[in-house]
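Job type: complex structure
Entries:
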Amino acid sequence: MAKLTVRDLHTTFGSVKAVDGVSLDVRDGEFLVLLGASGSGKTTLMRTIAGLEKSSSGEVMIGDRVVNGLPPNDRNIAMVFQSYALYPHKTVARNISFPLEAVRTDKAKTKERVEWAANLFGIGHLLDRKPRMLSGGERQRVALARALVREPNLFLLDEPLSNLDAKLRHQARHELKKLHHRIGITTIYVTHDQVEAMGLGERVAVMNFGKIEQIGQPSDIYREPANTFVARFMGSPAMNLINHGGETLGFHPENLLPVGEFQPDPDSLRLRFLVSGLEDLGADLLLYGSIPGSDTSPMGEGVDVIAKLPARLVTSIEVDKEADFFVRERYVNRFDPVTGQRSASVAA
Amino acid sequence: MSSSTPVLPRQRRSAAERAYARNETLLAIGMIAPAVLFIVLLVGVPFGLAIYYSLHDVTTGGTTARWVGLQHFADLLTDRNFRQALGNTILFTGGTLVTTLVLGTILAELLMRDFRGKWIVRFLVLLPWTAPVALGLIGWLWMFDSVFSPIDWLLRQVGLLGSRDAALGIMPNLYWLGDKVLAKVSIILVNVWRILPLATVIVLAGLNSVPRDVIEQARVDRAGYFRRLFQVILPMISPILMIAILFTFIFTIADMIPIFILTRGGPANSTNTLASLAFFTGILGGNLGRGAAIALYLLPVLGGVSAVLLRLIRRSEVT
């Protein structure tokens, strides 16, 4: 276990700057999520930390050791690939023991560690099988067990849940979090799914164009995004952005409430909301529409603003009619309409 | 069997044609017939003839064929030349196989890397495969020439040959094809030269099919180069390696062209294989029956090894 320090790291492929000046400090035992769309450089950043890509400049330190020039096998890291990258010709047991064999661990110790790792993930009964005989969830567990069988300084996970179906993903997320609590290893987790990032990360770094746009606790990033890019990334559905009175305003769908069913404060931002569509998701009711008179952000005609209400709420809201809505002042985020950066004067 | 009839353009067709299209069995037979005919004529007939010859006393000079039973086969077992040829067949095939596999894997490994001028190296590696066999072999005849051999010249230049204290002796030449051991080495060398391009391309295809993730995973798992090669890459491409082995094996074991052009089985029958001995005995020597019997000794070896390899391929297939 060790802390991870990244200083002004650049990784370029030809003229493409995949990682463009990233600095990071990850505490010993911290769980950091790198969040970004595909092409944002999050995977390249992880691969550079792992040593699978060569950095063009900057520094990567694991513990107090600069590892820039070291190949991946000298960095004592563990990694789980999106595809799990199991060795197809080896049994589960040999897959898990492979990292131990590579560092010439004696037989008794190997056996003990493999059993420990297999039990940790509940795959003790699968040890004699080949990967092709396993389900997606089981493969993922084998990959995790293999990664943790020796004691790595750093644990890197590249979208490990994206190959699982939605149901399994929730459970796996929960288990990953429990696992991290239990073994407390410094973990970097790459994902494009902001729900995963919110649920898992102690801190989240949102990446775009090879740079970190914002880093902080998930709830802080969710409530107070540093700029409109991050705002558009956080939440499901994403934060609403409208141009209103010379500034860009951002608020989450669940904070756009109908007057009548809810009581506005005197300083609440009051808006007329033209509802153009309605979607009942069981627990939530999504209202799609637009704010007349405000220049909505470039997200397409008609469905620029979304409100998310509890479905139990009985409302008189009808499609194609305007209604009075409001957002409490503390939930309104203000951004500079030109730079997209968060305005300095923020009501907290 | 699908019950749907092929969709044909609407046009006037004769009754026979329509009946033909409707009858899928007939169509299937018609489609497969050329292939069957091809195999029967080019494989079946000579094979049957070989069995017939091997059991009869047939010569190119006579017109009679006297039944001799397994006499040819029995005689051969005590024939020194036959036993030498049998040993050579195993030696040449084995030697070629091992050398080709090692060199092919190394070459393919190198060609996987990025370097300047890679395409020209790939082209050069493939070149021996495209050259006509006889032409290439005449080139080799020159390489192994008893006086003008470029290999000997090179050895003399670096001082390994032709002087009093040279490692390879005081003689100015090695007489590649005139020495019993060197002649065998020469045959293996030429076999390797011929088969290496194909083997390299096959192994290269195999290496390209190994997912990059898995190799990177092995690097992260702290495996060094040789552990990655022997524990991850080679086992994963083993089905393809088997195919390379099978091809090399079949190509080499029944091939007599290098021997025919380079040594004619000499010196003193020391480089004959079953294939070349069968040719020299049956065609050039005129004893068709005995020649056929020699060739037929290849059958169980070829059949057995092919069956074993195909079984291994099926078993080692990984998904």
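Summary: Chain B touches chain A through 21 residues (CB under 8 Å). Strands of chain B lie at 56-57, 66-67.
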